Structure formats: structure tokens, C-alpha cells
């Protein structure tokens, strides 16, 4: 009898064997994200990979054509009659967001459902071990029955039990608050320069964060802003389709649009997350673009820093996730963080998602004045 040992993979544990469809779906969704939602391109790449690595040879009578047919049957792709091409459906968009969440946050625990825990105790959702005297309006579900009974017994006897209002103890609960977040995604040309794909991880993070908030923190708000020569809002459903363009980097307008968006959100806590390679290279001045792609132009930099200060005055924190290694660009990000009194993470592409998730959860804990 011979044994073959290999690294354990939970997907292939007993009862968890992946079907041919699921195996190809993992690869297809990765290619679909890179292809910015282009189904035909993703399928071409999948076919090329199958030709090169014989992926479907391990399956019994299941090829790429069968996979495409099942994609249609399961409602992941459909034929767009107007454009005469295959497109992904809403179900596929949700699946991409869920996949990104699982991929990026697979080593991190999910937070509590439904709110942001603060350092302040009061009326909330999660019971604490500490107790206090009952007050008018307290939820009777939080009464400490043992503590209340002990207090009552202190002035009662066998013949007569007397419960006074002062006897009643209730458990403290964590106070929860909502958070308004704007996520900024840099779509400038530098996000794909020098053969380094920075935009695919950025999109995955955006999809994962949106899925996290939609499913776990329904009372929160998430707005997404893409920026290049200008800044514009992006719907959650459009995230898979984002592409880098022949753009400069208008960081100032991105921060300005985020600030104006947060002004309309009636939340106590507001924050901006910005994923960028760090170099602002243009501003809009008197209706015209002023640009300088060769370095950190002080005129442009000062406009960005001015916007960071405005955000600070409005109690809007900026957390920058820097995905470039150039020291002079990192120095600019530090200058931006100092102006806003915010935070900066100099993250590798592999760590980008974890950093955003950890900071999003941490930003939920805010002291209520």
C-alpha cells in the first residue's frame, strides 16, 4: 500500500470536494476581475490556460463549453441582445464581491452584526458583565436577575419578599454607532505602470469592503469614488468593471468630492479610505487642467494638503493605503497624513485588504461625548 502526502486543502476535505464547475469558477472569477468584467476576455484567457495546463483533463466529460453552458443556466452570464455579447448578471456581481471578501479577509474574524462598537457603555446591543442601578427606560431584558434577587433578600424574610426599585440591577450594554465611509480608488495610468497590476487588488478591496458593509453593517453607508483626471462616483454594482485609464491623478478633487459626500451623511463618524500609488499630478484650476507628471509639483501638493486640512476641520479622518515603494512618494503621504492628523499604511499588494479591514473595524470604536 502506498500513500501520497500533500499540503492539506480544506476544499478537498471529505464532503468538500470541488465540482468541475466550482474549480473552473474560482479561476474564471479571478480572470473576470482582472478583465474588468469582460466575459469574452476572461473566457479567452480561461481557454488559453486550459490549453496550456490541461485543467479540464482531470474532469470526466466536462469542458470549457460545458462550463459556459452551466454559467448561463445558473444565471451568472447572459446574452446582451443589443451589444450581441455575453455579460455578467447581478448574481455574478454579488458573487465577485463575496469572493473578494472571502479571499481578502479569510484569515480575519468577522465583526458583530449590525453596528459599530464604541468605548462608551449605555443602551446598546451587546450585554456586558458589569451592572448598574436600574433607570427609567432601561430594557427589562437586560435585568440582572441574580444581582436583583440578592439585593431583595437583604431586606426580606421567609414570610414576605419585598422588591424595591433600588434593588433592581441591569447589565450595561455596549453603545453602537454608525459610520459613513467614502472609499477612493486611484484609476490613474500609474496604477498599471512598470508591469505591476495595482488596480486588481484595489478593486478586490472595494468589492470586499462593500460586501462586508452590505451584509454585516446595514446601518452604515459606503460611497465609492474613482479618480483620474477628475473624480466621479461609482456604484457598488460597477466595481468589477473599473479600468485604469490614460489619466493623471487628481487627488485634490477626489478628497473634495468625498468631503462633500460626507457632509450629506447624517452620521456622527465619518472617514475616507484612499487607495493610491501616492503621486498627485493634476488639479482643475479655473475650469482648466493644470498638470505635472514629472514630480511632486508644490502647487498641486499644496492644494491636496489644503483639502486634507478641510477634512480635519470637519472631523473626517483620512486613511491612505500607499501601494508604491518610492521614498519621495511615501514622504508625500506622510505629509498628507500629518495635515489631516490621519493615518497611512505603506502596504504591499498582498496585505492591502487586511490593512483596510483591520482599520475599518478599529475605526468603529469611537468615544461618544
TrEMBL record:
Q: By its UniProt entry, which InterPro entries does this protein fall under?
A: VWF_A, vWFA_dom_sf
Region feature (Disordered): 112-132
**Pfam families xref list:** VWA_2 (PF13519)
Sequence ranges assigned to domain VWFA in this UniProt record: 181-279
Q: What name does UniProt use for this protein?
A: VWA domain-containing protein
- Record the organism: Fodinibius salsisoli
Upper classification of the source organism reads: Bacteria, Pseudomonadati, Balneolota, Balneolia, Balneolales
Amino acid at each position: 500500500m502506498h500513500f501520497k502526502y500533500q499540503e492539506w486543502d480544506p476544499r478537498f476535505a471529505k464532503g468538500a470536494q470541488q465540482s468541475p464547475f466550482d474549480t473552473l469558477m474560482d479561476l474564471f472569477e479571478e480572470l473576470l476581475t482582472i478583465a474588468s468584467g469582460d466575459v469574452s476576455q476572461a473566457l479567452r484567457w480561461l481557454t488559453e490556460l486550459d490549453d496550456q495546463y490541461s485543467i479540464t483533463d482531470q474532469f470526466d466529460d466536462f469542458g470549457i463549453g460545458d462550463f459556459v453552458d452551466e454559467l448561463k443556466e445558473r444565471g451568472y452570464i447572459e446574452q446582451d441582445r443589443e451589444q450581441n455579447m455575453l455579460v455578467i448578471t447581478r448574481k455574478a456581481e454579488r458573487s465577485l464581491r463575496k469572493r473578494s471578501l472571502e479571499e481578502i479577509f479569510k484569515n480575519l474574524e468577522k465583526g458583530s452584526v449590525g453596528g459599530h462598537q464604541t468605548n462608551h457603555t449605555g443602551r446598546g446591543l451587546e450585554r456586558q458583565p458589569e451592572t448598574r442601578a436600574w433607570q427609567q427606560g432601561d430594557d427589562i431584558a437586560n435585568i440582572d436577575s441574580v444581582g436583583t434577587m440578592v439585593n431583595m433578600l437583604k431586606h426580606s424574610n421567609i414570610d414576605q419578599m419585598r422588591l424595591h426599585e433600588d434593588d433592581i440591577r441591569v447589565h450595561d450594554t455596549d453603545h453602537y454607532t454608525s459610520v459613513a465611509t467614502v472609499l477612493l480608488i486611484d484609476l490613474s495610468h500609474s496604477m498599471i505602470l512598470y508591469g505591476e497590476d495595482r488596480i486588481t487588488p484595489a478593486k478586490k478591496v472595494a468589492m470586499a469592503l462593500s460586501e462586508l458593509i452590505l451584509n454585516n453593517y446595514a446601518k452604515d453607508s459606503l460611497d465609492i469614488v474613482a479618480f483620474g483626471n477628475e473624480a466621479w462616483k461609482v456604484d457598488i454594482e460597477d466595481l468589477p468593471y473599473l479600468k485604469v485609464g490614460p489619466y493623471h491623478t487628481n487627488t485634490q478633487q477626489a478628497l473634495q468630492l468625498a468631503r462633500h459626500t460626507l457632509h450629506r451623511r447624517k452620521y456622527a463618524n465619518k472617514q475616507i479610505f484612499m487607495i493610491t500609488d501616492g503621486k498627485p499630478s493634476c488639479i482643475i484650476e479655473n475650469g482648466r487642467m493644470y498638470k505635472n507628471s514629472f514630480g511632486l509639483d508644490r502647487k498641486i501638493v499644496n492644494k491636496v494638503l489644503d483639502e486634507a486640512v478641510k477634512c480635519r476641520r470637519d472631523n473626517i479622518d483620512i486613511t491612505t493605503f500607499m501601494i508604491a515603494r518610492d521614498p519621495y512618494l511615501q514622504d508625500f503621504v506622510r505629509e498628507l497624513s500629518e495635515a489631516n492628523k490621519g493615518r497611512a499604511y505603506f502596504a504591499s499588494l498582498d496585505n492591502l485588504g487586511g490593512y483596510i479591514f483591520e482599520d475599518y473595524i478599529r475605526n468603529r470604536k469611537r468615544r461618544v461625548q
